[in-house]
Write a structure and sequence with these properties.
Shape of chain A: globular
Low-confidence stretches of chain A: 79-87
CATH topology of the largest domain in chain B: Cytochrome-c3 Hydrogenase, chain B
Organism (chain A): Actinoallomurus spadix
Number of helices of chain A: 4
Order of helices and strands of chain A: EHEHEEHEH
Number of helices of chain B: 15
GO molecular function, one term (chain A): peptidase activity
Distance between the termini of chain A: 14 Å
Strand order of the largest sheet of chain B: 3-2-1-14
Number of strands of chain A: 5
Shape of chain B: globular
CATH class of chain A: Alpha Beta
Pfam families (chain A): HycI (PF01750)
Protein name (chain A): Hydrogenase maturation protease
CATH architecture of the largest domain in chain B: Orthogonal Bundle
Oligomer: heterodimer
InterPro entries (chain A): Pept_HybD-like_dom_sf, Peptidase_A31
Helix content of chain B: 40-55%
Number of strands of chain B: 14
Helix content of chain A: 25-40%
Strand content of chain A: 15-25%
Mean pLDDT of chain B: 87
Structural class of chain A: alpha/beta
Distance between the termini of chain B: 15 Å
């Protein structure tokens, strides 16, 4: 099992996924790999390729409310907008991974709704609370798999 | 198509962490009246972040400017600080820096060639669609990128925003055995890189020729982590004179400063400039691959930059193998004591010359910083290329013309091309 936190610590709530990984250090069973990624699809594919379960945590755009946590069994396909060259997009990584046969056995995605994505560090309070909630859920998931 | 007296193409809402911008093309009758490329570059904020920070911090802080070329920022930062402190880092430590830079070139160029630029030539809207039809090719590109990343991870601690680089050298240097572990991957990469040159050389390139002056580092070797700035008209100057020779200026439509040569004008930096000024310093196989690909003594078609990038991957792989073959572990760093003064550093990032200048006080704190990234330097040249492109293709409809503009912008690599992938187009006619 691997947990991959995606994001950018210098764009405030975009660092939510990275914060979750920091919270998990020392808490998860030792066979759980923890990794961070800026969303670059090739790196994502390399990280999750061959894992029996990959958990991806990323910040998502506001919809329901700041700090709201979405959980899904896969990344959506066909919605990517090729938003960059450095960072193509996370869902594009999944689509490319499927075409190239570089996907984990199982994939789980946590999206934390952010509110502040400007320059600077530090999470907004609702996202900070959501980070702890997601870290708790992942810890429980990792422990369940061992039992 | 119907006759259009006046046409305006707006490409806007470019949102990227590394670069944000927009493009507007205004055509009146049969003449292109205005091309405005608006690129927003965060490095300006980093110059402010750096003030008051310790002289040991710029490599780590500036590496955050870009996720694709953090090594370039670290190397230019180290050279600038070390020059301020009167220290030169050469020999085996310099070779290790060069090796790490090779990793970044391989990784960055492979990403651009295979996932960003090639779809344009093969007629696919994105790498995903291209991968369905050309899976083995895309996998070859990903393997190349992985090889570059492996070098950065070993020397830098991690591929994105490496943490093992410090002023004076590295926190830790690898063992010979660790470096030798890279060799099998690099040998495979050499074959893949040569195949990449042959592949992209066969693409159908749009007809466009520019006459910009080129600016690149030059020296005894093909430039990566060091060199002396030189232009195609033969003018060479010391890195310390960069700000006397290159003038940055503001334009109303862009928050990123444009650049011009004080004694020349508009210029271009990047792979095409490096190749024009350093072709004879390419590694033997890279030199041969360039000739076989039909590249002459210089290349002035921006679309063919994909071929030059492929040639540079061959060079970087060969250079990496050369460094590893002669490696003897040095002490990890040269002590660098702070002193008041000014220091300059210039290296060749994947997309062009990257200049840093720092002023230090007697306590080793930065009192000012200046960073001139290649993307900013190239803005004026890109605008001129777009002007020529549009002027020669006014018979195209707006959609085709916009697509051609986006392709042109992508030829210059990441910071701009990334944004160009998701432009909202607005066409205004009157």
């Amino acid at each position: 099992m691997i947990v991959i936190g995606v994001g950018n610590d210098l764009r405030r709530d975009d660092g939510a996924g990275l914060a979750v990984v920091r919270e998990l250090r020392g808490r998860c069973p030792p066979d759980v790999r923890l990794a961070t990624c800026d969303g670059e699809p090739v790196q994502l594919m390399e990280l999750w390729n061959g894992a029996d379960l990959a958990v991806v945590v990323d910040a998502v755009s506001p919809a329901s409310g700041p700090g709201h946590v979405h959980e899904a069994a896969e990344l959506p396909t066909g919605t990517h907008a090729d938003t960059s060259c450095h960072g193509l997009s996370v869902d594009l990584a999944a689509e490319l991974g499927r075409i190239l046969g570089r996907m984990p056995g199982d994939l789980r995605v946590y999206g934390i709704e952010g509110v502040e994505f400007g320059f600077g560090s530090g999470l907004s309070p609702p996202v900070r609370r959501a980070v702890t909630e997601v870290a708790d859920r992942i810890t429980a998931l990792a422990c369940d798999r061992r039992s | 198509m119907t006759h259009r007296h006046e046409r305006t193409l707006n490409i806007g809402a470019l949102a990227r962490v590394e670069g944000e911008g927009a493009m507007q093309v205004r055509v009146a009758g049969d003449r292109v009246e205005e091309i405005l490329l608006n690129i927003y570059e965060p490095p300006r904020f980093f110059e402010a972040f750096l003030r008051g920070r310790a002289y040991t911090e710029p490599p780590d802080i500036t590496s955050r400017i870009c996720g694709i070329c953090p090594v370039a920022y670290q190397m230019s930062a180290c050279r600038a600080v070390e020059s301020a402190c009167g220290v030169a880092v050469d020999g085996p430590l310099g070779d290790l820096r060069r090796l790490m830079y090779c990793g970044e070139w391989i990784s960055s160029h492979a990403l651009h060639i295979y996932l960003l630029h090639a779809p344009d030539f093969l007629g696919y809207p994105s790498a995903v669609e291209m991968a369905r039809a050309y899976r083995p090719l895309v996998e070859r590109g990903l393997e190349l990128k992985k090889t570059g990343n492996a070098i950065i991870e070993l020397l830098g601690g991690r591929a994105i925003h490496p943490v093992n680089v410090r002023v004076g050298g590295f926190h830790r240097v690898p063992t010979p055995r660790e470096l030798r572990g890279l060799v099998p991957g690099l040998r495979r990469a050499l074959e893949d890189a040569l195949a990449t040159v042959r592949w992209v050389a066969g693409f159908d390139f749009p007809d466009l020729t520019f006459d910009h002056e080129f600016l690149a580092l030059t020296g005894e070797e093909y430039p990566l982590e060091r060199g002396t700035p030189r232009t195609t008209t033969g003018a060479a100057f010391e890195v310390a004179d960069f700000e006397d020779e290159v003038a940055e200026y503001q334009v109303p439509h862009s928050t990123a400063l444009h650049s011009r040569l004080v004694h020349g004008g508009r210029y271009l930096t990047g792979p095409l400039a490096r190749f024009a000024l350093n072709r004879d310093r390419l590694s033997p196989l890279a030199h041969e691959a360039a000739a076989d690909a039909g590249l002459g003594h210089e290349c002035r078609n921006p679309f063919q930059s994909i071929v030059v990038r492929a040639v540079e991957i061959v060079h970087a792989v060969e250079e990496a193998l050369r460094v590893i073959a002669s490696y003897e572990p040095p002490p990890p760093y040269v002590p660098v004591r702070a002193r008041a003064g000014r220091g300059h550093g210039a290296t060749e990032a994947p997309r062009g010359l990257l200049y840093h200048r720092y002023d230090l006080d007697g306590e080793g704190l930065l009192t000012s910083a200046r960073i001139v990234p290649p993307t900013s330097q190239n803005q004026a040249a890109i605008e001129e290329d777009l002007r020529r492109l549009v002027q020669d293709r006014l018979d195209l409809d707006d959609a085709a013309l916009t697509s051609a503009c986006e392709r042109t912008i992508r030829s210059y690599d990441p910071c701009i091309s990334c944004a160009a992938h998701f432009l909202d187009l607005k066409v205004v006619r009157s």
